[in-house]
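Milestone M4 deliverable, item 7.
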Amino acid sequence: MFECSANDVKNLVELQKNISSHMELEEFFKTAVKKIAEIDQKQLKADSLIKTVSGQLESMRKDYAANEAELKTVEDGIAKSNQKLAAVKHDQEYQSRQKEITDLHVKAHELNDSGLKLLEKLETAEKQFNAKAKDIETFLKTSTKQRAELEKKVVLAKKQLQKLDDSATKLKAEVDDYLLSVLEDNVRHNLNHLGVVKVEDAVCQGCNVNVPRQVFNELQKNQAMDMCPNCRRLIYWEHTE
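Output delivered:
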């Protein structure tokens, strides 16, 4: 049994609320910081994906442009060879020019086919990229907003934690050291963060188990606190009119 005044009980109850609120804010702070880190990581991956795919598309465009440039060169070569063919005077030279033109036509056909395949591949990739880019853009917009909201809540939580710390310092100065250690240990390890509770009709409001009649009588008779034999929480009786 611990002797205490009504003010002592009040301070303990207030300190219990303070500790409980502090723990809840600490948990929120950890969760919020973790979520912010996860958002940052996902945004980095999204940005990296955009850059990677953009680079791949740019490479495909260059390949297509190079194929088209080579095709244009071959087609120009065919035109020039046809012009030269018209001025040929000997059969041997004529046959040589014809072979040259035939080879150029084969090359042009190959380049035309490869160009069509490159273009088809490029258009498909661009279509897929554009669809994915919209999803990523939506994600970045939404996640950036979520991050900003979390940042505001984190700042507010820090301010609230500081206020609780200041209040706790004042309350602890008014509480017996032993009772304080029992309270803090109970609050951090008991369910519902309850370390000090009322006894009503001889029932502990922390574990809902009847306390011994003698203990209950002592709580009613004296301004005192005790430990619940069942849950080891600090218990008190509050007189009501």
